Amino acid sequence: MPWIQIKLNANNDNAETIGDMLMEDTGALSVTFLDAKDTPVFEPLPGETRLWGDTDVLALYDAEADTDTIVAQIKASQLLPESFSYKVEQIEDKDWEREWMDNFHPMKFGSRLWICPSWKEIPDPDAVNVMLDPGLAFGTGTHPTTALCLEWLEGLDLSGKTVIDFGCGSGILAIAAIKLGAKQVIGVDIDPQALLASKDNAQRNGVENQLEVYLPQNQPDNLSADIVVANILAGPLKELSPVIQSLVRPGGQLAMSGVLETQAEDVANFYRNQFDIDPIIENNEWCRISGRKK
Hints:
The chain is an alpha/beta fold. The protein has 9 helices and 15 strands.
């Protein structure tokens, strides 16, 4: 069945209150918060809802809903200016999971690395192939931040090296590192679903014995590696810079992404005391920051 979606522009202070009003007073079936500038938000602390400075609130309704009445209710709530902006759209009902699967194709990174959906045929059996089913965790290779990290890993000599994937998500970077020759890889993530996805994907690729995964509170003491990759976001990369830097052995290498072009220099400056930083690489406004520990 079709649906109606109403999009409102809000802000960090009122988005959650508006969302509650839409659910309780106007009969919205669901409410989604979407950054109006397409800037991601990192994992909130327990009990905390992190929103963006400019936030679009998307409310979904049955197609039979009276949008004039809903807009009148929104105005009556006085949570938005009288001349607030909104957009009403018809949303087609689809099998979204099937549509996403149909559009996720094998992708090549560098000269030899392929990321292949587990339900598609391998294009090059002689290449380094990572079979991936992301499940509920982030990381398919389609996002520029993941692509930047995969290209960096593909260009390294990982033979005999220990690698830490900090914020491992689906395990895509960790498994790629193993397939590219790493001796041992450790994945760390705050989300138990990510650890489950990483384990499942490692088993799918026959490398489960070379991958260890941990929640941060359970990781071994004095954990360190020759290579560390952290595809998270600018905020955590700055806040956790002492932790991330401590994971890299002297002379080891670090790559970070999840950083917008406008944020890259600021993030890099948190690491310059301990690292010789390479030229920053950009892909569709997203950046990779890499360097070698002094």
